């Protein structure tokens, strides 16, 4: 064993050995190496987008998964930990434009580089199962599944609003709309209706909601976010009669509300810019038509709608209150979406914050009709009163509580045929059409005679051309060689669909394909039912809604197609926190900032300065590592300087996995020092000669105490990793044990055998976290031993048994010392020992004891 710890030597050697031996191959049922007596453990971290380089968030995410995978392998599980690439997406198109390369070439080069980075970190991945979603052998089955769902009516086509750039003549993603303008052209973005394909996710809304109750291994925060996103609401549909017969024959305006108790406080209604009433009113009002055009130029992203300035314009139309027959003005408002409900809302300014602000802005009446059940409102209102309460100024419903009034109002409306109780969902069907190139082609052929025809199975996959020139818009829309084809039904000339699928589709089923990535005859086979569900899924909280909800939906679709047998894809979910770091910048003028990497900044007496010129810089606070703030740390540079094990140890020790981890150069150096100390301790021990681990000889009290701490540590670390997922405390416990080991004197055989036992177990407990160094240390401690096949340490119950216990000694309830007694001592023996102890004699001052109180296992109190 080398006296010096040299990660630059031992880590590549270990990685090469693991790769050559396929050490982390996960055998499928009936495959060589498969053991039917072993339970399975499928550990999966969310796969990365191949952006070019790993960042520290990746390192943290995949290290957490690797620790759990290695731990369960040591516990005797058949472990699957795969890796792949979420390879389609808009960034590749942007990079292609910027670098004048095809998205495919850019993507594959990035995959090759990032794969090398992952291997340098020593992850126990079964690389045989690697997949990339941009490969035809993957998306072929996505297209096949699309055609099956289309035939069942679970995919359909309808018109939907998108962000349209009128200069580039292309659809923009929400993130490509900046201050209402296209990110490339700078043109004002318009809302435009185009035909799009939708997954009918709403057909599964109830099951998606109720299924959350069967996921005890998921964080409550994530389940709450999904419940809110699905948004099951119980309320009332209310019909407001129109003052004149509407052009399409309807004579009411329908709205849905969960607060029918506020109906008598309605002072206006608001409709979306695309609503038929808005169109009718705009026909005679150029000013209103211009406002509607302005609304249509806004983003269609719900998050943007929530934060933008609320604007409106009176249409001049009126509707009638269903109870009072009072005329109510109809406004067009930019915060109402046509795709949600009926595209109309009733506004109650006195009892809704948004409506209150809108009413104040446009000088509309604010009419309170709800007051606290046990008090009065302070009038005039300074803010909306949004709580439930008791009705007043509400006709026959005055005096009723909100809950009671909602029921009664719904009943009366139903009798008047002006409304009824309804259950609604916030969840909307999932539009998956993307008017972009780098994605999975939608397998539909448009025939002028037969209409939309799914591509037959024997013509799949519809292969996306990879040799293309990216400029404005999707190149396949300009490639007759791609879109011209024959109709599968009639044989006549037809055209392929040139939209591609939302990349969330690929990431909604990849976890299942890992079970059988070599399958050429189908999407999944029986191996999926062996490995699924995923036992532990790991990823960021930012994926709590869309990805995780879509994956749950897709799993149910695959179940109903007979492809999987379980209801949910992921049994346990861990959402790791962000990696954050200091930010520094210099002002450039015009409000712009030049962000400087923390590695280029040092602290001087006067504050932070730039190393290159010694001039001051501004501290921007601690934020998530990102390219935009230039505060990232290159994992490769860290590995080159300290080694992968140091990176892994720091990531696991610096913070609990669900909390944010603040980057610290000192913390990294501390992790490296600990590994050097561990190496040195083992080296010094083995240099003194071979010795077997302790095997049962009689020990003195010092060695007994140390062995007790050792096996308490094994129990704690086991619980910290398996149940609590608190890797930082598991590491801390090993560090404490190392400190206790350093205090263990003696070179006799018995002491050295206990030291041998401790070092073997410390190495094994740290092996999932720092496998490279532990591979060498275990070999040194146990010549011929192999870390890959090593078992997790077990607790020696005998070592935990105490012959003596220490009790607190009190006199008149004041602490006066400690009392050591046999664990099986009787109460009489404990009382006698307490009364005779020097500490008690001193503080009793010769006075007789009135009584002695013994609390078993804890304390003795002498009352004088």
Distance between the termini: 64 Å
| Overall body shape | globular
Q: Percent of residues in helical segments?
A: 25-40%
Number of DSSP strand runs = 37
Radius of gyration: 34 Å
How large is the count of helical segments?
26
Structural class: alpha+beta
Query: Strands of the biggest beta sheet: in what spatial order?
Result: 2-1-26-27
Which sheet architecture does the biggest sheet show?
4 strands, parallel
- Quote the beta fraction: 15-25%
Q: Report the average pLDDT across residues.
A: 94
Please, could you describe this protein's structure?
- The chain has about 850 residues and is α+β, with helices and mostly antiparallel strands.
- The protein contains 26 helices and 37 strands.
- The strands form twelve sheets. The protein has a four-stranded parallel beta sheet, covered by helices on one side. A four-stranded antiparallel beta sheet has the order 6-5-9-19. A four-stranded mixed beta sheet has the order 13-14-12-15.
- Helix 2 (about 55-75) crosses helix 18, helix 8 packs across helix 9 and helix 19 (about 665-685) packs parallel to helix 23 (about 770-780).
- The radius of gyration is 34 Å and the shape is globular.
- About 40% of the residues are buried.
